[in-house]
Design goal:
CATH topology of one domain: FAD/NAD(P)-binding domain
CATH superfamily of one domain: FAD/NAD(P)-binding domain
Helix content: 25-40%
Oligomer: single chain
Low-confidence stretches: none
Largest sheet: 9 strands, mixed
CATH class of one domain: Alpha Beta
Number of strands: 20
Strand content: 25-35%
Number of helices: 12
CATH architecture of one domain: 3-Layer(bba) Sandwich
Length: about 400
């Protein structure tokens, strides 16, 4: 039986599975192929891996019907505090009451559980988990992959959603501009004495940003935050090997007593930080989404949200094309997706890279200039509002499904 579908999505992570569900809402069918085991990705426990979901991304989740399952797991972000080494001159981004929150924090496990449950119930999605792709083919009129078990899957359009090291992108020969920051992000879950009051903290040090992201209290009422601590590549191994007592001491040195005593630290992990952006996000019968197309520094927490904007734009282009009688792999549709997302994602990538470099300049003089600039932004409501709209993902040419 030839189960040809509209999309062949390679990568079933947060972006890939959201794409499949969003496409299904518009009547677009898909194969989703992922080598990971869903049971491992959704195992119980909170290890600190979490994502900030912007207002625009939350609108997408609402519009595809998974918000009700996610809402009980959401920790609202009521304010974002930005400071240079906890010195005077910080900025506090706090929206007006009628604007709602600046976003929501979720454990990645909660996001996966909601997405996977919805995908299993969607007949327009054929999910191939724990599957290895051993061959990819793009022809004039269709695409296909061969899996390790010999199965062949066919569709009209191939979508690379495997992340930063996308083999689909590499096999297509798409050029990538990239560089290594020589830093690693250390990730951990923290339990602490005082409540975080739903404030996300971004504390800048010369070695890199130190972010504390609010999470829901655990079932016993203990206060929790997710830590994303940027350290130099040469210091990462030593930081990860510190005992709990030494690790807590290093944290308290950087965050002071804002959360009181640190009661517990969860398992620590890390990943290298780098920048990459593709020269193009399309090729004949191929589109790239998420980190397969662009990888940015986590300094502003926009990586996943940038990928979800790709999802909304691609589905809107394909669904409008279908109304005109165009099939998903049509070159005109891919060209429109390229024009829409190529520049926007590049500008966001450049902005995050610029912030990373700006706050990485050492010295008292550089710190004083940064704090003077932040104090100026604090006194200019229109400029603060612009930054908040960017953080909420509500700026620019938004796809319909990401609007309120």
């Amino acid at each position: 039986m030839d189960d040809r579908r509209d999309l062949l999505i390679l990568g079933g992570g947060l972006v890939g599975m959201t794409l499949a569900l969003t496409a299904a809402k518009k009547g677009i069918s898909s194969h989703v192929v992922d080598r990971a085991d869903p049971a491992e990705l959704t195992a119980e426990g909170f290890d600190g891996r979490a994502s900030a979901i912007s207002t625009a991304s939350w609108n997408l989740f609402r519009n595809i019907g998974i918000a009700p399952a996610l809402e009980p797991q959401a920790c609202p972000i009521s304010s974002i505090a930005v400071t240079d080494r906890m010195l005077p001159g910080r900025i506090a981004f706090t929206p007006a009451a009628h604007e709602g929150t600046l976003g929501r924090m979720f454990a990645n496990r909660a996001l996966r559980l909601a997405l996977f449950e919805a995908a299993r119930a969607e007949p327009l999605i054929a999910w191939h988990a724990k599957a290895d792709v051993v061959g990819r083919h793009r022809y004039d009129y269709n695409v296909s992959v061969r899996l390790g078990d010999g199965q062949e899957l066919r569709a009209a359009l191939m979508v690379g959603a495997e992340g930063r090291s996308s083999p689909t992108r590499e096999e297509a020969g798409i050029a990538v501009a990239k560089w290594d920051y020589r830093h690693r992000a250390v990730i951990a879950a923290l339990m602490h004495e005082k409540p975080h009051d739903n404030i996300a903290w971004e504390i800048f040090y010369p070695a890199g940003p130190f972010a504390l992201l609010p999470m829901l209290d655990d079932p016993d009422g203990r206060h929790r935050s997710a830590l994303v601590w940027t350290v130099g590549e040469d210091d990462a191994a030593g930081t990860l090997k510190l005992g709990d007592r030494g690790f807590k001491a290093e944290l308290e040195k950087r965050m002071g007593d804002m959360f009181g005593a640190i009661l517990a630290v969860g398992p620590r992990s890390s990943y290298p930080l780098g920048f990459h952006h593709t020269a193009t996000i399309t090729a004949p019968r191929l589109a790239l989404v998420g980190d397969a197309a662009h990888g940015i520094h986590p300094i502003a927490g926009q990586g996943l949200n940038l990928g979800l904007r790709d999802v909304g734009a691609l589905v809107e282009v394909l669904s409008e094309g279908a109304r005109l009688g165009l099939e998903p792999g049509d070159a005109q549709l891919l060209a429109r997706y390229e024009r829409w997302r190529g520049l926007d994602s590049f500008m966001v990538a450049l902005a995050t890279d610029g912030l990373t470099r700006l706050f990485g300049v050492p010295g008292a003089a550089a710190s004083a200039v940064r704090r003077l600039g932040m104090a100026g932004v604090e006194r200019l409501p229109p400029l603060k509002r612009w930054f908040m709209n960017e953080a909420r993902g509500m700026a620019g040419d938004l796809p319909e499904l990401l609007r309120a």
